[in-house]
Every structure is written in C-alpha cells, then in structure tokens.
Amino acid sequence: MRTQFTASGGAHSCCSAVSSSSCCCISTAAADRRLNALVRHLGIEDSKSAMADISANPTSASNGDSVFAHVVRAPEDPILGVTVAYNKDPSPNKLNLGVGAYRTEEGKPLVLNVVRQAEQQLVNDPSRVKEYLPIVGLAEFNKLSAKLILGSDNPAIQENRVTTVQGLSGTGSLRVGGEFLARHYHERTIYIPQPTWGNHPKVFTLSGLSVKTYRYYDPATRGLNFQGLLEDLGSAPSGAIVLLHACAHNPTGVDPTLEQWEHIRKLVRSKALLPFFDSAYQGFASGSLDADAQSVRIFAADGGECLVAQSYAKNMGLYGERVGALSIVCKTADVASRVESQLKLVIRPMYSNPPIHGASIVATILKDRNLYNEWTIELKAMADRIISMRQQLFDALKTRGTPGDWSHIIKQIGMFTFTGLNSDQVAFMTKEYHIYMTSDGRISMAGLSSRTVPHLADAIHAAVTRLG
Amino acid sequence: MAFRSAMLSKVVSRSSVSCSRCMSSWWGSVEPAPKDPILGVTEAFLADPSPDKVNVGVGAYRDDNGKPVVLECVREAERRIAGSLNMEYLPMGGSIKMVEETLKLAYGENSDFIKDKRIAAVQSLSGTGACRLFADFQKRFRPDSQIYIPVPTWANHHNIWRDAQVPQRTFHYYHPESRGLDFAGLMDDIKNAPNGSFFLLHACAHNPTGVDPSEEQWREISYQFKVKGHFAFFDMAYQGFASGDPERDAKSIRIFLEDGHHIGIAQSYAKNMGLYGQRVGCLSVLCEDEKQAIAVKSQLQQLARPMYSNPPLHGAVIVSTVLGDPELKNLWLKEVKGMADRIIGMRTALRENLEKLGSPISWEHITNQIGMFCYSGLTPEQVDQLTNEFHIYMTRNGRISMAGVTTGNVGYLANAIHEVTKSA
C-alpha cells in the first residue's frame, strides 16, 4: 500500500514508521526515479530488496531528511503580492494600483528616451568592457549622484567630506548604510516614521539595528502629525538614528513643508540625532529635482553629518537595473576616507562590487548637458501626469458626491495616495471592482489613467457608501 | 528658487543649532580598513608606470594581448536586447528563464530534479551574492551549524560566512609539499567533523590553488559525506573555464547528485561568460520535493528583499538570450573552450620556459593544476621581490592568474620567477 511520503514526521498511514526518516513508503513518480537511479548506481537487481537495503541504512542520504525540511513557506510580500494577485485576475476591468512603478496613460511601463539614447551609446561603443567595477562602484556615477542630491555647490562635496558608494538601488543603499551604522555607530536604534515603506523595518533589522517608530501620519487630517513627530524625536535618546523620507513619503504622500523641515532640522541637530534620508523620488514628486532635494540639502549644508540613500528606480525608470547610491556626509575629508574604506568591508562579503549597466546609463545621462536637460523634461512630464491624475480623481469623487473630505488626494505628493480606506473597503474594491492595492489603502497614482479614473471613483464611492 | 536658497542659508547660518560648531564627527573612531588583498593588487598595478609591468593578480580573463574580452555571443545578445527591454522589476527570485537555463548547466540538461521541480533557485548577485544568500539562509534555518571551509580558499569566503554570523572551521585541502591535494588530510577532516556538518566545496578549478580532486577522489568524498550525513555546498565559479567542457567541469556535482545528496550550489557567469561587472549568478538548493523547494525559495526571497529587493536585469537577460538560442549557445561553448585552451597553453608555456631556464625546482604543478589560477609555491618574500624588482603583480600567497599570462610576457615572467627562486 503506497501513500504520500511526507516530511513532517508523525505516524504514517502507510506503515508503522513514526518518523519520516524511517518511513520507506514512497509513492510519487519522482521518488521512484530517485530510487531507481540509486538502484542502478548500487548495482542491485531486485528493487524491492534495494528499497529495503537503502531504507534500512541509517546513513543513506536518499532517505534522510533534508537539512532544511523544517523550513516553512514564507508569506507573500504584501506589496509585490498585490501584483501576483492582479495577474491571476481574468477580469477585463482590473486595475493594478499596487506596486509603485510608473505607467503611461496607456497603462504601459515607460522607458525614458534619454535612457534609450544612453543605452544605444553604450552598446555602440566597441571599447566598452564588462570588467568588475571597484567595490564602491563607478566613480563618475558616484560623483554625479552626490551632486544631484546634495547640490553641486554643496560645501561638503567641495571639501571632500562626502563619501559616496554605488548601491543596489534604494534598498541596497539603505542596507549598506544600516550595516555600517550597526558596526561603527554608537547608537543602535533607528527611528522610522509611522507608517513607512514595508521593507524599511526588515532592512534595518537585518542590518543589525533595532527599530523604533515616530509618529508621522495623522489619520484624522490625512496629513502630517507634526506635533507627534516633534514630541517623539524630541524624546529619542541623544544620537539615535532617524530615517527621513526626503520627499513624496511612501506610503502616505504627506511631506513636511519647508518651514517644518527647518524646524525638524533644528530639533535633530539640537539632540544630536543622526539623519538618514531615503531619497527614492527626487524630481518625481514636484517635477523639480532641486525642489525635491531641499530637505536633504538643508541638512547637508549645515556642517553636520548625515546619510542619504538614493534610488534611480523611479526618476530614471531604471527599476530592474538596481541603480542607487549611498552618500555619507562627514565632518572631515579624512573621516570620509576612512568611512569609505569601512563601507567596502560591508559590500565585499555581500556582492563584491555593484552591477555596471544601470550605473553606466545614469552616468551617461547626468554628465551630458543635452541628455540631462531632456531628462528633466521627461521627469516633469511623469510628475505632471501624476498630479493630473490626482486632480481628476478628486474631481470625479466630488462629482459623485462621495461622502468625506477627499482634498488629501490633491494635497499629498508623489506616486502614492493614502486614501484613508480601511482594509474591509479595500477588500470590497478588489472583489467587486477588481481594483488591486495594498490593504493599507495606498494607491499608486502612476497606475491610473484618464480612462480608468471613473472606474476607481465608482469603486471608492461604493466602498465608502456601502461600508462607510 | 535662488531667493529661497539664500533665505534658507541665512536661516541656517544664524541658527543656534548650526552644526559647524559641533565638536567631533560621529566617525572619529572609525579605523581605516585594510585594503582588499586581491583587488588591492590591481590598484597597485595600475599605479605602476613601468612598461614591463605584468598583472597576474585578479582573476579576470585576458586575451593573448593582455586585453579584457567581451565574448561575441554576449555582444550579439546585447545588440538584440538594446532598445527592446522594458526595465521593470524582476521578481525577487530573479529572471525565471535565466534561472532555468542556469540549473540545466549545473544539474544536467535533462535533470529529473528540474523536471520534478525539486530545486529551490534564485538569481543572485554573481557567485558572491549566491554564497552570501546561502550563508544567511544557513544562519536563519540551521542556526547551530558551522561551515567547514578549505585551506586555502578564496579570501572572501571567510568574510561572507563571518558577516552572515555562521561560525567557521577549516579542513585540510592543499598539500604544500606536493603542491597538490592533501587527500588524506581532507578525508580525515571529513570523518572527524560532527555528523551533519556543512562543507564548502569548490566544484572545479579550486581558487586559489587550481588543485582539484580526481573523479575517483570525488566519489570517495561523496561516499564519506553520505556516511557522515554532511551537507555539501558547491561554489562553482568556473564551469566550462576549467577543462573547456561545462559538462566535465560539473562532474563533482553530478557525482554528489547521483549519490543522493541534497546539495546547494552557487553559480557565477562572471568568468565563463565574461560578465564580471554585470553580477549574474544563481543560488540553488536541492530539496526533497516540490513543496519543500517552494518553501525554501520563498525564504531565500525573504533574505533577498531586505538586501536588494530584486536582482539586476540586464546581465540576466544577456544570459537567457545566449543560453536560450541554440546558435548563440554553441558560440558560447566554443568561446569558453577557447578561453580554457589559451590558459592551458600558457600553463604549458610557463612550465616549459622555467624548465628550459634550468630551474632546480619542479614546476609540474603548473600543468597539473587547473583553471584560472596557479598556486606557484612562491613565498610572500619572493612575491614582493617579483613586484619590486620585476613589476610583476600577484597576490602574496603566490597565486598567479594564468589569464594574465600571454605569449608576449610568459618569457619575462618565467625569467623573473627563475631569478627569485633559483637559489631557493
């Protein structure tokens, strides 16, 4: 009698074995093939006795449990899992407002013209090779990236006080920064805003830091809980690390004003907190690279130290190429140099050196005046389309008389809107209207078009009126 | 905008919490880190103005003119790709197509393990990334385990498992007297290790020694692993590059698979497809069944997500384009063989040159060893002499990257080696 072989232990219905390692009853074709291969190898004629031989041998590797037999399946990533579910849905009206990747009015991914041009330049250059980059990455790319975020007139850059390493997009840059801090910084706690990008806590925990939160979003106003933020950062221990979203806060789209940023800067410096910026949307939020970098720049110009993780995933549409940078602004050039040497020790055992392709594209664009200018125009167009979607959605809800104040849709900035919808309402919208978004009510405006706004507005209206 | 910046800078400088008066850096106590022993060699080489300089340091292939090579099959793949890819995120586990092709190389074109979906596999940041992911996975799911690492090994192996916080032990591997394998020592260490230990094995073309077990020795190692219930993790960075034949270079792995081991493999396309800087590789773990493979893969992804979210696209598409097109794949196989043959030719030439010079030492090991590296047996002092007097750059363990040897410099190299060793 053959029954399914399981690895979970316990009594088996097929025999009296009490553990999987002594059960000899195997039913699947796969297991048969395995055994047959072994039989051939051992030169045993009679497969029945072979099975007995093998299973009786406690040191046989074939019947032994895998050393990873106890590993359970991990839950789907909440953000990336949305796209998985969306892909499974056969409805023609389905709408993916989950992951934050830009889409055109036609709902298509966009590769920027400047990126295509840079690609062509690279592929047509016969002198290009694929040698390893240095551990810190492409030098040209690093310099240009630092200037992009800190400003080309930044005094720290001019004084060689900034060390920049190429990273694996924003995620990789945050991780390298986190690991560096866990090893070399005297405070092991990082304060992250509530809420924040779902991957932040994991990145910093695995880096070796302990994660605490500070108040950020106010559900009542769907805006910034500025008082709460100041209180929480004010009561953080001196020297604690603070994660700040440079602009276009993910997932809420709620940013401090410039005046509020200055207030935050004063508080951070007075408490000697260490700012760690995550800049994933420079240029993408307002359409202006400089405006979106102001928060970082006021810190980077005040003589103090800070860390900045940059990503080119969204603003250059280079998502899958994993291009980013980590800059650490230090007090002195000597310190910056020593810090760089330690960053290399973090990187080398992680992936040795970063990938060339994406960084080469970025460097090609940033150093060419024409390509750079063209890029700023394409960037503004993406930002403008998103701002237009915000307006259209707001107007559509107003037209329908949807109960509630929806002005946060046009007040929030960047790729995401924190709608304020609860998880029941979200589930309803998915089930009835085939709208896919994360259960925290975050929608990616980049996934909307003029054509699909009405459908979304209908869904929100229904969810609010039926499950309000 | 200018007005606003001017206003802000006034605010900042007048502010009593401007940091320009803060006393010290947070990083005042950060020590300068030691230079990477391998990559530091190339840095020094580049800085040397001598016209005679020779770089036999880092393991990147060079043609007979000493120039880096981009394979024809890769150039063609790139031409096809350029302009056509959108750059969307890959899944956390990377390019499925690329992983499929990569598993075929390691496990066999018609492997039952692939058919039965028993392999948990994810695209990785080349070989380094694959080793690191596995080390992190080992730490998380076998927290009491250690890793046994051969002596010597690629220096970064130690860093990888250390940063993953997996304790390390070593096992005998290289036999300095014979410049070959310390098989007895190796087998003793396998037998004496506690049952169920984790071992790091180089599938072929051991780095840095170039010393590989023979097929018979691999069978004995596999048998002993069965007896002890050890876990074998293979680092295969040179498949195709060692003998010129990828199938042959995978022999050690195939032996273990035949014997029923559930192994792990780190594969890299850095050398055999010349994709060094693209960072393309694959980590695979053979599981009991499909269900377990799904579970293990999902956990590997959980480790990748907080490290880099998902792996880079371009290199993966190059690989799947080359391996997915029979014509390009054949071209690749030819080109890999070409690289391996050139290296084998240089080994012969170097040995012959040294013998012709009347060296008192045996240089048999140069042609016995295999792959990119030759463990010359030179002492650190002799290496320093080679560098200082002859502008020859190699790592201080005496490892010579044969890929850096050309018909143009082999005579010079042999002569220099002879000079520093003739009175040894």
From TrEMBL, chain A:
Record's keyword annotation contains Zinc-finger: no
CDD domains: AAT_like
Entry-linked SUPFAM superfamilies: PLP-dependent transferases (SSF53383)
Catalytic reaction equation(s): L-aspartate + 2-oxoglutarate = oxaloacetate + L-glutamate
GO biological process: amino acid metabolic process
Record carries keyword Amino-acid biosynthesis: no
Annotated Gene Ontology cellular component terms: mitochondrion
Domain of life: Eukaryota
UniProtKB keywords: Aminotransferase, Pyridoxal phosphate, Transferase
Gene3D superfamilies: Aspartate Aminotransferase, domain 1, Type I PLP-dependent aspartate aminotransferase-like (Major domain)
EC number: 2.6.1.1
InterPro entries found in the cross-reference section: Aminotransferase_I/II_large, Asp_trans, NHTrfase_class1_PyrdxlP-BS, PyrdxlP-dep_Trfase, PyrdxlP-dep_Trfase_major, PyrdxlP-dep_Trfase_small
Molecular function via GO: L-aspartate:2-oxoglutarate aminotransferase activity; pyridoxal phosphate binding
Stretches assigned to the Aminotransferase class I/classII large domain: 93-460
Cofactor: pyridoxal 5'-phosphate
Other observations noted: In eukaryotes there are cytoplasmic, mitochondrial and chloroplastic isozymes.
UniProt record similarity statement: Belongs to the class-I pyridoxal-phosphate-dependent aminotransferase family.
Family matches, as NCBIfam families: PRK09257.1 (NF006719)
Function: Important for the metabolism of amino acids and Krebs-cycle related organic acids. In plants, it is involved in nitrogen metabolism and in aspects of carbon and energy metabolism.
Assembly mode: Homodimer.
Name by which UniProt lists this protein: Aspartate aminotransferase
Organism of this sequence: Ziziphus jujuba (Chinese jujube)
Gene from which this protein is expressed: LOC107420693
Automatic annotation (TrEMBL), chain B:
Known EC number: 2.6.1.1
Enzyme class: transferase
UniProt keyword annotation of Translocase present: no
Keywords of the record: Aminotransferase, Pyridoxal phosphate, Transferase
Catalytic activity: L-aspartate + 2-oxoglutarate = oxaloacetate + L-glutamate
Misc. remarks from the entry: In eukaryotes there are cytoplasmic, mitochondrial and chloroplastic isozymes.
Protein name: Aspartate aminotransferase
Origin species: Ziziphus jujuba (Chinese jujube)
Gene: LOC125421882
